[in-house]
Amino acid sequence: MTCEHMSNEKSLPYLDTCIKLHNGKYELFYYEKLNNSEILTNFKESVAPLNQKISTLTGEIYRRNNTTLCEYSLDLALKHLTARLLKIIMLKINIIIN
Predict the structure, then answer these.
(1) pTM, rounded to two decimals
(2) 29-51 pLDDT, tens digit each
(3) Which domain holds residue 70?
């Protein structure tokens, strides 16, 4: 069992969400623990079919959509996911080119 405390930024993490005061009201933002791995699934050596890998990505998009309340927090969550996926794509490009 873990116990989370409110941070200096007046936010409280809970599961995949972080409750923050934004523009005068409480909003839900997507949250990942700091020790979270960058790996969604092993795209390089996984024996899972491609449709399961695509389902993993789809699930990540839905998770961010369902754990945010305002457009601002959804935009932040999707930008973070996009940056994470671009890292995977760039790594794969470098492996193939070099």
Answers:
(1) 0.64
(2) 877 766 666 666 665 666 777 78
(3) 11-97
